[in-house]
Amino acid sequence: MRDLSSMTWKEVKDVDKDKGVVFVVMAPIEEHGLCLPLSTDLVEGEHWSKEAMKKLEGRHRLDCFYLPAFPIAAASVNEFYGSVHFSMKTTCEVAYEILESIRFMGFKYIVVIASHADPEHQIAVTKAVRKINKKHGICAISPMGSIFMGAGVEPPEELKRAEKEHGNDFHAGWVETSCLLDIDEKLVRNGYKDLPDSNITDKEMIFKKKQLGAMGKFGHIGMPRFASKEMGAMLNQNCIESICEAVVNFYHREGYKKYDDYFLYKILPLHLGFVKAFGRVRRDKEGK
To answer: Quick check: pTM over 0.85?
Structure first.
C-alpha cells in the first residue's frame, strides 16, 4: 500500500487504475468520554483501513493507496469540549470534492471509511457517494454505515454473546474502549473499569436530548467496564474482514449492495441537517 500524498503527480498518473483501490478515512476529532482520546474514530478508521489494505494486497493482488485521514465529520451532539464538528452540508460537500478529485486522477475504485457511526455523518457521506456515482458511474462505496448496522462478516460466537449481553453500547463504551486497547492500549486512560454504565435504546439514539441525558457528565453511552483487549481484537478483526469483503465485492461489482445500502438514509427526518434552517452546528457558549 502506498500513500498517494507521498507520490509525484507522474507516479499517480502511471498507476494501473484497473487494479488501484483508494481508501479515504473521514472521521471527527470528538470527545469520547473520560477514557478515550478525541482522535478515537480517526485511530480506528486508519487502523481498519491499513489492515484491510494489507489483506487485499496479499489475498487479491490489488494495489491499495490511501491519503492522510480527513478529520471532517457531522455529528448530532456538540456540547462537550474537544469536539470539532461540521454541518451535514459541509461534510457532504467536502466528501464529494475529495471523491471528485480522486476520480479525476482516473481511479475507478474508491472506498470511504467513515469511521464515525453518527447517522448525520453516514448520511452526509452516503449522499456524496451517490452523487459521485450518478455523475461518473459506479466508482465509490462507503460501507461503514452498513457494517456498523450488522451487515458485515458473521462475528465469532463470543462476540455475539457479548453484544447481546451488553447491547446498546453506542459511544466510548466497551466496544470502542476494547478496540483501542487492541490498537494501542497507551491511548486508553486508566479508570475505564470504574466508569458507570449509561444505557439508551437504539430508537432513542436519534434524539439529541436523549443522547445528552445518557451521556451525563461522563460523555459515554454504554459500559466501558466490560472492555478488554481480547474483545477488541475480535471487534477489529471482524470489522477489517467486513471491509475486505465489501471492497472485493465492490471491485468485482457483485454482491456489494448490502454494504452500499445504509438503511437509515431512507428516514427523511434525519436529512434535516441539509436544510438551512436546521443545518448549522449549534454549540453552547464557553463555560455554560
So the answer is: yes
